Amino acid sequence: MSLALEHSTVAFDQPVCLIAEIGLNHDGQLDQALRLIDAAKKSGANVAKFQIFQTDHFIHPAAELGDLGPGSLADFFRRFELDASDWQRVRQHCRDRQIDFMASVFDLPSLELYASLDPVALKIASCEVSNPILQADARRVLAPMPWLVSSGTCTEPEIDAFMQAHAEQNIVLMECVSAYPAQPGDYQPALLVQWAAKFHCLCGLSDHTMGMGVSAHAAALGAVVIEKHFTLDRSLPGADHAISATPTDLAQLRSILDEIQASRSGPVTGRQCRPAEEGARLYGRRGLYAREDIAAGQSLTITNTVALRPARGTCHASQWPDLQRSKCNVDLRALDIIACPADQSDPDNKGDDHFS
């Protein structure tokens, strides 16, 4: 399974796709959006992701801010709107910087605008998992585009119903907690393993915590996508700056994800000695030496034999159970090596069989 973006590929055997969720952090300013794209690319993100909407098509005009304080919810969201020409600039800037462009889209006019931007994938925001009207519009306007789907606010039966309704869709299903910030204990990265088996899909994580441990845990369990809110400065006024990763944070997360990817690459075929371990195997393991003078014809015993580093050129200590009580066929001085025939020792031992 894989998902081909414009500049990267989402798959288990590829570097973990790191999404910089710029979202609303451009604060309605094109120049800031472009700076965020530059910073995301420099920090190692694969995707610069935004939110595209026309407020009057997804917010009721009488809606209040609620937990955000007094005021109009529609007025709040209008602050973050960009016009079509701005989005064309954003799209081209991503292409020029060779970072993938993606957006969550919240209404039909915005889906049509998004389609004009030559996108390669759509993000379905958490709360839209329960919106079949938007989903039907997305399938019609953007078919057959892959979807990345966040699961925040959802129950398992709701996820089941969504995945069944869109069984033919190429989906990356993402564990998410819709709290800002979220607590690490609220996440269940182990769901990714269950979902991958249950739905036969790629899985990822949208991380709203302030740290990086949850993202690292998810990547270790097989997440192919990690999404993190992204800002230039947490002290900026605006919706999500305070809970977002800075360029330094994102670069550190990129490094962590690359280390995890390196450790999970390749088939699991049972424990094998790695090339990097050959030195430790040769010089760290113990070989057999004479603890004291041993005369020819005398048997090797636990009292006249000692296991010392290195094993190079000697019988390995692991062979002792088979060699004890064997008779030495040469005189040995204390600390002389006890050598094996060439076909029983390491490649550097030419074979001076010291016992029979």
Quick tags:
elongated, two-stranded antiparallel sheet, single chain, 11 helices, TIM Barrel, alpha/beta, 15% strand, 356 residues, 8-stranded parallel sheet, Type Iii Antifreeze Protein Isoform Hplc 12
Q: State the distance separating the first and last CA atoms.
A: 58 Å
Q: In which range does the helix fraction lie?
A: 25-40%
- Residue-averaged pLDDT: 93
Shape: elongated
CATH topology annotation of the largest domain: TIM Barrel
Describe this protein's structure.
It contains eleven helices and twelve strands. It has 356 residues and is of the alpha/beta class. It has two domains: 10-264, TIM Barrel, CATH 3.20.20; 282-344, Antifreeze-like/N-acetylneuraminic acid synthase C-terminal domain (Type Iii Antifreeze Protein Isoform Hplc 12), CATH 3.90.1210. It has an eight-stranded parallel beta sheet with strand order 5-4-3-10-9-8-7-6. The chain has a two-stranded antiparallel sheet with strand order 1-2. A two-stranded antiparallel sheet has the order 11-12. The chain is elongated. The protein starts with a strand and ends in a 33-residue tail after the last helix. 35% of the residues are buried.
